[in-house]
């Protein structure tokens, strides 16, 4: 949501058009009924960008349109300025109101003017504040954690939908693997091609399992008394799959353990609002470690760079599963395994650097929001 909103504000600025406060997708797997104003501070969003883009709360009646009957189109993914100026802008002469019905990854990572790149950052880091209720509870979580010392935020992407979507079932029973495959085939936009779990894993395309994560954290040198906050939804397999991680790191906590039941009541059944709390804690943590490089992990990484290049360890999953298998079949000793894991992550800790560019392969490039170097100082 954050990335798409930032991109569309930037497109509106480029085309000198009025933007209507975005509508959020309510038809995804999570089916979250939250509106923009349930997650973000709408008035702050509009006011803080007043000198850049005119943003209104609804389509004016005089135009004779609502968002429901406006001309709909999905912009082409990873598009640059010329696409929007030459192909999209002329459409407004005909339709007056256009509803972009897909907005994720519709603006290029690279090749844009510095002015537009910095606007993307301004929207992300300054205009998109969470609601006062989310901010208050997120800050309370951070305060509770900090009172107990430093802490690691572990974005453990081992929820049922993540595994079904990615086609990954390593470590699951046959019944669980069947359940995940059944879920995958229940969603037409997930079943586009047959996926083989072990092939995906060897390619680094699967989230690390809780058991694999345990070995990686130990190899990286985290001690038994490390305070670890799990930033995620319900872990597939629940406490059974967390057993190894909890045994190795007894100070494992979740928001449900730190807050009173009444604190979370207003956010229950609103997955995006619950994720916003985890987002705040992850940004504030001493160290952030995602087990999968999804959108939230990338956005948190970028926020932490913006806040002074706070330490973010981004696991090299392809290398890690290779090392884990070698250790578990006794080809590598523990010491050899630990040294190899640490060496593989020396340069994966969120240090200043320019974003990687892959010419003519925008989907494979480093994501702008993970490393918005145009907006950061001390880049190398």
From TrEMBL:
It is a single-pass type II membrane protein. One of its GO terms (biological process) is fucose metabolic process. Keywords: Carbohydrate metabolism, Fucose metabolism, Glycoprotein, Glycosyltransferase, Membrane, Signal-anchor, Transferase, Transmembrane, Transmembrane helix. It comes from the Eukaryota. GO terms for molecular function: glycosyltransferase activity. Pathway: Glycan metabolism. The keyword DNA repair does not apply. GO terms for cellular component: chloroplast; membrane. It holds the Pfam family O-FucT. InterPro entries: FucosylTrfase_pln (IPR024709), GDP-Fuc_O-FucTrfase (IPR019378). It is found in: Membrane. Belongs to the glycosyltransferase GT106 family. This is O-fucosyltransferase family protein. It comes from Aquilegia coerulea (Rocky mountain columbine).
């Amino acid at each position: 949501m954050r990335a798409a909103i930032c991109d569309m504000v930037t497109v509106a600025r480029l085309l000198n058009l009025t933007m209507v406060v975005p509508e959020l997708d309510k038809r995804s797997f999570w089916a979250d009924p939250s509106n923009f104003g349930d997650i973000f501070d709408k008035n702050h969003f509009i006011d803080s960008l007043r000198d850049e883009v005119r943003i209104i709360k609804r389509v004016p009646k005089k135009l004779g349109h609502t968002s429901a009957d406006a001309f709909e189109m999905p912009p082409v993914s990873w598009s640059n300025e010329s696409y929007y100026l030459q192909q999209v802008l002329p459409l407004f002469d005909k339709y007056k109101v256009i509803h972009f019905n897909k907005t994720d990854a519709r603006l290029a990572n690279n090749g844009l003017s510095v002015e537009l790149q910095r606007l993307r950052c301004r929207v992300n880091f300054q205009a998109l504040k969470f609601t006062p209720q989310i901010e208050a509870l997120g800050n309370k979580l951070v305060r509770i954690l900090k009172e107990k010392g430093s802490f690691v935020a572990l974005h453990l992407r081992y929820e049922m939908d993540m595994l079904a979507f990615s086609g990954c079932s390593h470590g699951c029973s046959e019944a669980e693997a069947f359940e995940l495959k059944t879920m995958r085939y229940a969603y037409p936009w997930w079943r586009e091609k047959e996926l083989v779990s072990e092939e995906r894993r060897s390619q680094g395309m699967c989230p690390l399992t809780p058991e694999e994560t345990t070995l990686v954290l130990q190899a990286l040198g985290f001690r038994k008394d490390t305070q670890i906050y799990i930033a995620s939804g319900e872990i597939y397999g629940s406490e059974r799959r967390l057993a190894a991680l909890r045994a190795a790191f007894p100070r494992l906590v979740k928001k449900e353990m730190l807050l009173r039941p009444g604190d979370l009541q207003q956010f229950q059944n609103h997955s995006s609002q619950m994720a916003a709390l985890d987002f705040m804690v992850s940004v504030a943590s001493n160290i952030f470690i995602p087990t999968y490089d999804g959108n939230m992990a990338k956005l948190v990484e970028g926020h932490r760079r913006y806040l002074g290049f706070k330490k973010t360890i981004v696991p090299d999953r392809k290398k890690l599963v290779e090392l884990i298998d070698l250790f578990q079949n006794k080809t590598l000793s523990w010491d050899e395994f630990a040294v190899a894991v640490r060496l593989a992550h020396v340069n994966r800790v969120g240090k200043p650097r320019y974003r990687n560019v892959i010419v003519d392969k925008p989907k494979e490039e480093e994501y702008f929001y993970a490393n918005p170097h145009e907006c950061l100082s001390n880049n190398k």
